Each structure stands twice: as structure tokens, then as C-alpha cells.
Please model this.
Amino acid sequence: MPAVPAPDLAALRDQLARADEEILALAAERMKLVKLVAEQKGRSGSAPFDRAQEAVKMRELGGVAVRHGVPEALARDLFGVLFAASRGAQRAYLLEELPRFSIGIVGGTAGMGAFLARVFGAAGFPVETTGLDRGAPATEVASRADLVVVAVPIAATVDVIRTVAPHVRPGACLMDVTSVKRAPLAAMLGVAAEGVDVVGTHPMFGPGGADFDRQKVVLCRGRGDAGQARVRRLFEAFGAEVVEADPVEHDRHMALIQVLVHEKTLVLGSVLEQLGAAVARSLEFASPIYRAELAMVGRIYAQSPDLYADILTSNPDGARVSALFAEQAQRFANAVETGERAWIVERFQEVARYFAEFAAWGKKESDAILADIVRHG
Model:
């Protein structure tokens, strides 16, 4: 039999073009369905972002990709983009439906306050800001807004609350955005009028990006169901995942998530500085794990020292966690100095048993991070 001629390059490109058009047509159909989902969520009051559901769907799609001979990584990249577009469309719809109210941000000219002012203002909320260098007096801003946000440095938060809270009108809501919750909530509840709703919040991210897509915000209930619901809906409409906690639980978790982790990173940077380490040269030898650690060191030391000093010293549970960190670090240092290999192995095994149920999760999370560093680093 004569050989079947291979299709020429032009014919293959035509087939690719048709496949691309089919993909885009399906993407358009998907976006129509996303709008219907957003409408349903709006009617039911469901949060637009469901992290667990998104994770389940991504795992399912990874399996489908493998069955079709498509690399799972490609499926994750493709549907990561589609999921992001879906979330954006849902946010746009829900924000259109969200009633507008006035927002006054004390400390709204810098940092998180300025970020919130930009995001809320861009969505059509009337926002008034005040700061150390500009804006109306904080007490006046607080007296005019439906939602009053205190977004000043941690060390100044309680004093500012005591100044502005008496001026918040009944029926309005007062909230803070600091990374400790016990003292600010107590101050708001103690000074604001009884008719003022009070909510403690903690955005678990820095002031950057277009909105709160896939970011976590912790809410601590203070006083008033209406204010709590309004604040929750506001953050969710911008794409945040809201986690509710009481202030004691919040501060205990922040002692781990912030104090322990940031202190470890600050110490690592301090050791590198004391060693006079050739950091740039070390990157030429670096494993992905070292690159990730060094990136976090650089990230922290590029920011405000006052911010991290406040984080480490203002949490009521911080000193206990820091002392235990120092104790364990000293014990490992002693083992390294004396060559106690057996102790290191034994301690490793003890901790590994404690983390056993998180091992699969930890490996998957770290694999994704390290793979991204290898691909883009």
C-alpha cells in the first residue's frame, strides 16, 4: 500500500485553530453558567468562594486529565485560570447587588488602611480617610460613617479606639483590622455607645493586589448581628474566605502563625547577617527549599521594623511561644555542638508522629511551592 502522506504544517495549524476556537466557545459557555451560580449564591446568601469545593473539583479534574493523557500540571494551570475568572465574575455580580454604605477609615492613608480605601472606593463605596498627615480629624470621620474602620499600627490601636469610638453614632458599626484581638475588642466594647455594633477583624494578608480573592479574613464577634453580617458580606463580596473565632482563640493561633513563624524568619536573617554570609553566592548552590526560606527573609526585612516589632511584642500569648522556641532551638544547638545524633533522630521521630496526619497535606503543599520555584525561580 502506498504511504499516507503526513498532513502539512498549514493543515495542522488549521486543526489547532479549530480546537482553540472550540476551547474558547466552551469557556464562554462556562462563564454563562458561572453567572447563574453567582445569582443563586446571591439569593441564598452563600459565600462566593468555597475553598474546599474548589480543591475537590481541582482533584477531580486532575484525574480526568490523566485519563485523557493530559499532564495533571497542565490541567491545574488551565483550570486555575478558569477558576480565577469564575471567582472574578462572581465577585462582580455580587458587588453589583451589595448595598452601598459610607466607610470611614482612620489610618486610611497608608498600609492596610490605604489598601482597604482603594479597594472599597474602586467598587463605588463612599470612603473617607484620615491619617497623621492629611484628612479631617479622626473624630469627625468616625461621626459620619456607617462603617468606621480603625487601621492604625498595633501599638496605637487601643488609644485611637478610645479617641474615636465615643463619636461613632448609634446604628453604625466600628471595627479594627489589627493582628491581635483581645485588647482592641475590649476597648471598642468599653468605649463605643451601646447602640454601636462592634466587630474585630484581621485580614490575613498584606496590603496588595486588586481585592481579597482567596485571602482569609478572621472575624471576631463583638456586638450586634447587623454589623457582623454587614462586615462579613463586605469581605466575602470581594472574594475573601471568612473565618470566625473568639478573640482568645484568635490570639493563640496568631502566636503560632505570626509570632513563632516571623521570629524564626527574623532569627534566620540575623544569623546570616552575623555570619556575613555571601547570600548572592549561596543562591548559586541553593536548593528550592533554601530559595523559599531566603525569599521570606528578604520579604520581611524589606518591610517596616515597627510592624514586626509590634507583632512580636503585642500578642498576649507571644512570650510563652517565643520562650519555648528559644528552649527548643538551644536544645538542638546543644545536640549539634556535642554530636548527639541519636537525640536528633529520636526527637525527629517524636515530632514526625505528632505531624503524621498532616504529612500528606504538607508534602503536597510544599511540592506545589517548590515546583513553582523550580519553574519560575
The first strand starts at residue 103 and ends at 106.
